[in-house]
Recover the amino acids of this structure.
């Protein structure tokens, strides 16, 4: 008997016979693509269709091959197919439900692909018909809701979520996807929450559920009342919120693990040996090759949860075992193509390990620590557009956290100490920090470390001004909390002061280049006011009196930088150019720093002369400082502990619109044919009762 080959819905004998034979399902599709009603000749046509294995590729290809006019001619049959798919979702036989779900995916994508230029209303008409749209879409959403909430097949639930993701992402700009109006009216929010609150469902479908929710929240969020925003903002069920946190933590943890693996692989390779041999001149170039695709979809979900739901803040500090240290079952991993933006969900095996009971020997972690580690990786390289967007979103999330009273309470809690191993960019002038020597400290120290790390490592030609501004704002908001609550944080403040002074030095050295693109005085003013905050209120939140003395020592030691800054802003504020006003603000802000320098420098010079010392030690300078505080006069500056609260709609709408577009495109790309494959489903439903 001749062997049979299959391709694109055609069956061809490998013998001499050249005439191809079509699969029965393909023949049935061809009948739908005529102007005649296919059930006229065969009353059982629709019943039989959903018993056939779906040929997604053929059906989508057929739809895409038609022009608009041809599509309109078969509109009645397309409407009929769509309606029968919805009816089949209520069938008892799971095979029919599976085939109906997959057919809906193909229909929605195929029609949208063909009608990219037309309005959403035309798409609705083409799929379901205006007259029946409301009822059909209501029935569809109710069927999907029932399947998601039922205790039945996990494969069916997976396919329902895939269909919903398909529905949401068929347009690049989800706010132009008018079909989503029906998803707003017939909410599946409770079904998503149920998935997140159940450990079994969460392991299987948590990732898709969280990404779906993040996208639905962004549908026309600035133009109308989005019920998903309203409902997400008031969720207070602990199991649901923790479930959402676990899914996000796992996805970020998976990214961190992949990066660490690549880093270790990279360091043990030939290039690393060569770098060690010739010195560190190539280290920056070498490190660029360590790249793992970022995951904006899951980061967006974290942002929406933190931004919209005050109760979710508690989830950030919820302890779980360090996911990177957990041993996972060594089962064979199927080879799948690497997908952009990390939108592929992590393996369910790894997710389940995150929910194991705590072990005394395992380092505990939480969502915030995992997020800080993730941020430390993506913020290293901001030249890549996706990493730049990820870095910006990380800083926006940290901004929301830094403004939250409860978040600040656990960030600064002395009883919640963690060892947070942030990734540091390899640099020629510093050694790689040993992970084992990290102290256990309150979590706010890790946030400050991350900010210092960013400040130190991004002084470059393509200066990320926006990220620097956000970075300084986060530090300022944390200081405002410390001042308000009189929290004396034991932190190496000198590292922050040094980083800030070096930033000012960089701005001055590159004045001409940077002024062509940025208003550097906004950033300079923020940095100077951070020093003013320490000078004016430092005695209320610095850990010891000697810390305050060290602040003065650093200002005096680096006085040349402040002198140069004053000369620069004075020059520009006395000219009638565009920078007159912003430069003059910096001039006024420097008054106390200049008073400190002008007061102590003569005293130090006098001390050196009297004691015949050419160069004073740090202790000697500190002695002079302590002895001369009484005669120092400083001006009281208003508003140093005030800040403008974060507002998404007024300042970030354009950023989020572009980000959601990028996520929508990539989620759609990842809903490839292989993810909708029937093989596993058919194995599960191998018998029809």
């Amino acid at each position: 008997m001749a062997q049979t080959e299959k391709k694109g819905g055609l069956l061809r004998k490998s013998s001499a016979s050249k005439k191809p034979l079509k699969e029965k399902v393909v023949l049935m599709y061809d009948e739908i693509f005529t102007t005649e009603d296919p059930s006229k000749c065969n009353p059982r046509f629709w019943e039989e269709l959903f018993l056939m294995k779906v040929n997604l590729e053929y059906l989508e290809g057929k739809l895409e091959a038609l022009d608009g006019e041809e599509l309109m001619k078969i509109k009645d049959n397309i409407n009929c197919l769509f309606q029968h798919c919805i009816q089949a979702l209520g069938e008892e036989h799971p095979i029919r439900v599976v085939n109906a779900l997959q057919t809906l995916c193909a229909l929605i994508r195929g029609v949208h692909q063909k009608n990219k230029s037309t309005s959403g209303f035309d798409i609705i008409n083409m799929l379901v018909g205006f007259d029946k749209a409301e009822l059909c879409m209501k029935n569809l959403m109710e069927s999907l809701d029932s399947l998601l909430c039922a205790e039945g097949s996990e494969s069916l639930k997976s396919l329902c979520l895939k269909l919903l993701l398909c529905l949401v992402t068929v347009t690049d700009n989800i706010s132009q996807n008018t079909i989503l109006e029906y998803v707003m009216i017939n909410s599946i929010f409770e079904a998503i929450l149920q998935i997140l609150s159940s450990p079994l469902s969460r392991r299987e479908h948590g990732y898709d559920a969280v990404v779906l929710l993040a996208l639905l929240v962004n549908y026309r969020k600035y133009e109308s009342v989005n019920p998903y925003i309203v409902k997400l903002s008031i969720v207070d069920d602990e199991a649901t919120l923790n479930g959402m946190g676990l899914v996000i933590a796992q996805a970020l943890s998976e990214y961190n693990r992949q990066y660490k693996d690549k880093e270790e692989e990279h360091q043990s390779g030939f290039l690393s040996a060569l770098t060690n041999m010739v010195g560190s001149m190539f280290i920056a170039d070498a490190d660029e090759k360590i790249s793992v695709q970022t995951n904006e979809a899951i980061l967006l979900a974290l942002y929406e949860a933190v931004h919209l739901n005050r109760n979710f803040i508690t989830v950030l500090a919820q302890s779980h075992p360090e996911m990177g240290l957990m041993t996972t079952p060594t089962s064979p991993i199927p080879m799948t193509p690497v997908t952009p933006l990390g939108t592929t969900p992590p393996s369910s095996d790894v997710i389940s390990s995150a929910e194991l009971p705590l072990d005394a020997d395992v380092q505990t972690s939480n969502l915030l620590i995992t997020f800080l580690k993730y941020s430390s990786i993506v913020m290293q390289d901001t030249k890549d557009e996706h990493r730049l967007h990820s870095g910006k979103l990380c800083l926006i999330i940290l901004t929301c956290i830094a403004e939250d009273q409860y978040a600040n309470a656990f960030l600064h809690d002395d009883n919640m100490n963690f060892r947070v191993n942030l990734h540091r960019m390899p640099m020629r002038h510093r050694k790689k920090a040993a992970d084992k020597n990290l102290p256990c400290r309150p979590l706010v120290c890790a946030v400050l470390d991350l900010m210092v790390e960013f400040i130190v490592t991004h002084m470059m030609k393509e200066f990320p001004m926006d990220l620097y501004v956000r970075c300084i704002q986060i530090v300022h908001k944390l200081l405002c909390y410390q001042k308000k609550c009189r929290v004396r944080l034991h932190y190496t403040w000198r590292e922050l002061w040094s980083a800030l002074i070096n930033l000012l030095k960089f701005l001055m050295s590159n004045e001409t280049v940077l002024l062509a693109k940025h208003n550097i005085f906004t950033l300079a003013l923020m940095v100077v006011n951070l020093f003013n905050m320490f000078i004016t209120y430092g005695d209320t939140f610095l850990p010891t009196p000697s810390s305050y003395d060290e602040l003065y020592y650093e200002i005096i030691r680096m006085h040349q930088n402040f002198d140069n800054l004053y000369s620069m802003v004075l020059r520009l504020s006395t000219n009638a150019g565009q920078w007159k006003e912003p430069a003059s603000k910096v001039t006024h802000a420097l008054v106390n720093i200049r008073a400190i320098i002008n007061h102590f420098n003569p005293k130090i010079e006098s001390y050196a002369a009297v004691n015949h010392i050419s160069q004073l030690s740090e202790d000697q300078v500190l002695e002079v400082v302590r002895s001369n505080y009484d005669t120092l006069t400083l001006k009281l500056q208003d508003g140093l502990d005030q800040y403008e609260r974060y507002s998404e709609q007024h300042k970030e709408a354009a950023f989020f619109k572009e980000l959601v577009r990028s996520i929508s495109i990539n989620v759609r790309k990842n809903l490839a044919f292989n993810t909708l494959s029937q093989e596993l489903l058919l194995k599960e439903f191998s018998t029809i009762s």
Summary: Residues 376 and 450 are 6 Å apart (CA to CA).
